[in-house]
Amino acid sequence: MNMLWFEDVLTLLEERNMTRAAARRNITQPAFSRRIRSFEEWLGIEVLDRKSNRVEISAALATNEAEIRAMIARLNELRTKIAQHDPAVSIVTIAATHASVVSTFPDMAIRARARFEGLRFRLRTANLNDCVTLFLRGDTNMLLCYEAQSVTPLQFGSGVRRGIWGQDYLVPVIGGGLRYAVRGKGDVPMNTPAIVYPENSYFGEALKKSQRPFGTADYSKNPICQTAFSSGAKEMILNGLGVGWLPFSMVHKEIESGELISLRNQIGQEMLDVAIYAHHQVETANSLLEFWAKKPVSTS
Predict the structure, then answer these.
(1) Is the terminal CB of the chain with fewer CB neighbours within 10 Å at N or C?
(2) Which residues pair with 245 in a beta bridge?
(3) Do 10 and 131 belong together in one domain?
(4) What is the tens place of the pLDDT at every residue in 183-209?
(5) What is the distance between the alpha carbons of residues 206 and 290, in angstroms, rounded to a whole number?
(6) Do residues 246 and 270 lie in contact, with contact meaning Cβ atoms separated by under 8 Å?
């Protein structure tokens, strides 16, 4: 048996399409199909119904998707323990969005290290969709991300627990020479240059649903730069390139020092939860979730 087969099958369950699944596994479709055939031969039954114009996944495979995810997560944890065995060290792998790594994770790590002796972290940083994929595939023990009230919450099965580290806010800020253009004024001119988020990014989706000015290109008359990376947007805003939206935890020091001016009194703010998810069967991750979160719950 080849453990890659289970990762192939999980990718197929996620994509529901042989071509897309093969592309994600970075192999040709015929090679991917052969690996699925090998899995079926090992299993002793067919898990795909190969019809003339389409391929359908059997109910036997689909109904056991949660078990496959749990097994891969457990095996990855075991692999980490064996490869880096040290009784005094606990390693937690976390899929974390870019913004959460910059704004909230440092404080979380400092507090956790003070509580758990020998705790170490391995971060896998990506956009939210890729972080969810890493977490669900068992490549990481935990998921750290922002969740806006205007966006549909993430949905996981009963094998995943959710907790809230705390609350944050997306706030509109302006810096550099542009500060003097708005200082003391009530409304911010809509033609003010803006650093906006793509609509398919998480912050972009939240800001667009709330129709926030300067959040996305649709709600800005002068979007001079579009980026999904908050840390890059912050540097551009600090240098006066445009107004933009950033997590308050990322910019509170600059607001206090006067390097940035908050415009939330004029434009408003978007409330965010700092959400943490952990696979239920991973002991270290669950202990950390209990420590970090307020009333962790199952996501089922």
Answers:
(1) N
(2) 172
(3) no
(4) 655 678 889 999 999 998 999 999 999
(5) 28
(6) no
